[in-house]
Amino acid sequence: MNVVYVGLGVMFFLWISFNLHRKRKNRNKIICVVDSNCTGCRRCIKRCKHHVLEVVEDEAGKRATVKYPDKCSACGDCLGKCKFNALKLIERV
């Protein structure tokens, strides 16, 4: 039984350390939308827990845009959800 607790403890420690490393690594980055690849499917918007992205409609059609860049933590959750490579991380200006 102690082996199970030790294993769970190690897994929890690794999970916490990975999340802290990911936040520290992407502190100076922000999400950017590649307009030519965006289809307006809203998958990234549904996945973003900080509500940074929104869909706008212009003459080219619907596409995602960064609405609140200050809220973006560059967590990368929306990057993994986009199937069209319409999102990328860039350095904050």
Q: Give average pLDDT, whole number.
A: 84
The total tally of domains equals: 1
CATH topology name, in short, is Alpha-Beta Plaits
What class would the helix/strand composition place it in?
A: alpha+beta
Strand order of the largest sheet: 1-4
Walk me through the structure.
The structure is a single chain. This protein is α+β, with helices and mostly antiparallel strands. It has a single domain (2-91), classed as Alpha-Beta Plaits (2-Layer Sandwich). Helices cover 37% and strands 24% of the residues. It is built from 3 helices and 4 strands, in the order H-E-H-E-E-H-E. It has a two-stranded antiparallel ribbon. A two-stranded antiparallel ribbon has the order 2-3. Strand 2 (53-58) and strand 3 form a beta hairpin. The longest helix has 24 residues, at 2-25. It is elongated, with a radius of gyration of 17 Å. The chain starts with a helix and ends with a strand.
